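Propose amino acids for all 353 sites.
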C-alpha cells in the first residue's frame, strides 16, 4: 500500500537523522537555551531578513496555534479566522479551550483579484476583514462582546490555496489600522513558498505579519515548528506562557538541531520543491485520466472528485484523505505529496487509478 493521505506520514530527512545521531551524546542546556537552538534561530533570522526577531521552537501545529494565540490575546479577546481555517475546523476547539473565541469569516469561494492563482476558497480578504471590524466597532454594545484581538490566516490554506503578496499586504494594512496582530500559520509554509504560482517569499511574510511559524513536522522534520515574532520583545514573558501550555520541551536542542539542519544550504526550500514537483505530476496524471479536480491547488495538496465505487476499489491499496461529500455518489478526496515523495510513488498511484 502507498499513502498520499498526508504530508506527515514519514519520519525525517536523512540529514536530520544524521545530525541527531552525531549530537546524541552531547550534553546541552535545556528549554531551548542551547547552542543548536541559537544557531537555528540565527539562520532563520537571516533567511527572513529580520535582525531582532524573537524565535521559539515548539513541537506541533495545534499546540503552536493555541500557544501563540493565547500569547497575543487579552482575556476578553477572540481571534478572527476563515470558517475553513484550521483553528476553526480541525483543532477540536483547542482555541476555545484556552478561553478565546474563534470569530469566523465566511470565505467559501470568495472572489478576489487573484484568479490566476487558483480558486480562492479558504482565504479571507481585506474587504471582508474590514467589514467585520467596522460592524463590531459600529455596534454600540461592543464593550459587552468578544473583541477581535488578532487575525489568523494560513499559507497555504486548508485547501492548498495561497495568498498573493498584494492580498497579504492588504490584510496587514487593515490589522495595523486597527492595531491588532496578524498571525500566519505556516504548518506547510515550505510548500507555499516553493509553489510555481506564488509571488510571496519568506521575507514578504516576515514584513507583513507580526508572528508566523515555519512548519517542520510536515516539511522534513521528525517534529517541530519554529515560531517567529517579527518584532523584538513582542511578548514580554513568553517562556511562562509556553510552559503553561505544556509546549516547552526540556530537551529543546532536539528541535534546534532539526531546524539548524533544515536551514543549512537551503535544505528546507529544496525538499519543499520536491513536494511541489510531485504534486504537479499527480495533478497532470489525474487530469490526463479524465478525473475532475475539485479546485486548482498550486501546492502539495491536490483535491479530486472521485466516484464512490472507485474509492472502494482503492481501499487497502492507496491512502488518501477524505475531504468532503460532493454529492450522493461522489466524494472529494485529497492526495498530499511531501518532501520525500518519489516519481515511483506517483507512477504507482497512476497505475491504481
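Proposal:
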Amino acid at each position: 500500500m502507498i499513502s498520499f493521505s498526508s504530508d506527515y506520514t514519514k519520519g525525517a530527512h536523512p540529514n536530520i537523522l544524521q545530525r541527531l545521531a552525531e549530537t546524541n551524546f552531547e550534553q546541552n542546556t535545556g528549554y531551548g537555551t542551547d547552542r543548536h537552538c541559537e544557531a537555528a534561530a540565527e539562520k532563520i533570522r537571516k533567511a527572513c531578513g529580520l535582525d531582532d526577531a524573537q524565535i521559539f521552537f515548539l513541537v506541533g501545529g495545534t499546540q503552536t496555534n493555541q500557544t501563540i494565540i493565547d500569547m497575543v490575546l487579552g482575556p476578553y479577546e477572540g481571534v478572527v479566522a476563515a470558517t475553513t481555517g484550521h483553528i476553526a475546523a480541525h483543532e477540536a476547539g483547542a482555541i476555545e479551550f484556552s478561553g478565546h473565541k474563534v470569530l469566523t469569516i465566511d470565505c467559501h469561494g470568495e472572489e478576489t483579484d487573484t484568479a490566476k492563482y487558483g480558486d480562492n476558497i479558504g482565504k479571507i480578504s481585506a474587504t471582508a476583514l474590514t467589514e467585520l471590524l467596522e460592524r463590531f466597532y459600529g455596534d454600540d454594545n461592543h464593550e459587552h462582546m468578544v473583541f477581535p484581538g488578532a487575525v489568523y490566516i494560513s499559507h497555504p490554506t486548508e485547501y492548498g490555496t495561497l495568498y498573493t503578496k498584494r492580498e497579504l499586504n492588504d490584510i496587514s494594512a487593515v490589522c495595523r489600522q486597527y492595531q491588532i496582530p496578524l498571525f500566519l500559520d505556516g504548518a506547510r509554509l515550505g510548500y507555499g513558498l516553493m509553489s510555481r504560482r506564488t509571488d510571496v517569499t519568506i521575507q514578504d511574510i516576515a514584513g507583513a505579519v507580526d508572528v508566523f511559524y515555519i512548519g517542520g513536522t510536515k516539511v522534513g522534520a521528525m517534529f517541530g515548528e519554529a515560531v517567529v515574532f517579527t518584532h523584538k520583545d513582542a511578548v514580554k514573558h513568553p517562556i511562562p506562557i509556553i510552559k503553561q501550555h505544556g509546549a516547552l520541551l526540556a530537551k529543546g536542542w532536539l528541535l534546534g538541531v532539526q531546524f539548524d539542519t533544515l536551514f543549512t544550504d537551503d535544505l528546507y526550500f529544496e525538499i519543499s520543491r520536491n513536494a511541489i514537483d510531485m504534486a504537479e505530476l499527480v495533478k497532470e496524471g489525474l487530469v490526463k485520466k479524465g478525473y475532475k479536480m475539485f479546485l486548482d491547488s498550486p501546492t502539495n495538496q491536490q483535491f479530486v472528485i472521485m466516484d464512490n465505487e472507485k474509492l472502494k476499489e482503492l481501499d487497502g491499496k492507496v491512502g488518501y484523505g477524505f475531504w468532503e461529500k460532493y454529492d450522493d455518489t461522489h466524494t472529494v478526496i485529497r492526495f498530499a505529496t511531501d518532501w520525500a515523495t518519489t516519481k515511483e510513488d506517483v507512477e504507482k498511484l497512476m497505475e491504481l487509478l
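Confidence is low (pLDDT under 50) at residues 110-117. Residues 267-288 form the longest helix (22 residues).
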